[in-house]
Structures are given as C-alpha cells and as structure tokens.
Amino acid sequence: MNEDDCIPLLLSLRECSEIDAHIRTAASKAEVADILNRHDLSEDDFLAGFPDLAKAVQELPGESRPTT
Q1: Triad 47, 51, 56: Cα angle to 5°
Q2: Which residues of 28-58 are buried (b: 16+ CB within 10 A; e: fewer)?
Q3: What is the pLDDT of residue 3?
Q4: What number of other Cβ atoms are within 10 A of residue 23's Cβ?
C-alpha cells in the first residue's frame, strides 16, 4: 500500500494501514462492515480507496463461523 492509494479519502498512511490490517484479518463481511463503521468509512469510500482489498472481501462469508 502506498500513500496515493488513500488520497481520495484524505486519510493518513497510518490510518490506511490500520484499516487495511483490520480488514485483512476479518473473518466475514459482517466483521468488515463493523470495521468500516468503527473507522467512519462508507462502502463507497472503501471501494474507492481500497479497490484490491474490496475484491478480497467479496470472497469472505457473510457471517462469522460460530465458535465452539
């Protein structure tokens, strides 16, 4: 990730890296939605600022797997 990736969002490189790390460790689309909410980031802004990561999120299940 480089600084230009987040320019449309006006986020610092540190903020972009934090969002990226949180989303890469998410186990479901529901977790990603929660992460976006915590960072006050809309889905449109996420798609614009993190297009490659948004593609990877599409492969996640909708809900987290239940833990036993």
Answers
A1: 105
A2: ebebbeebbeebebeeebbeebbeebeeebe
A3: 46
A4: 21
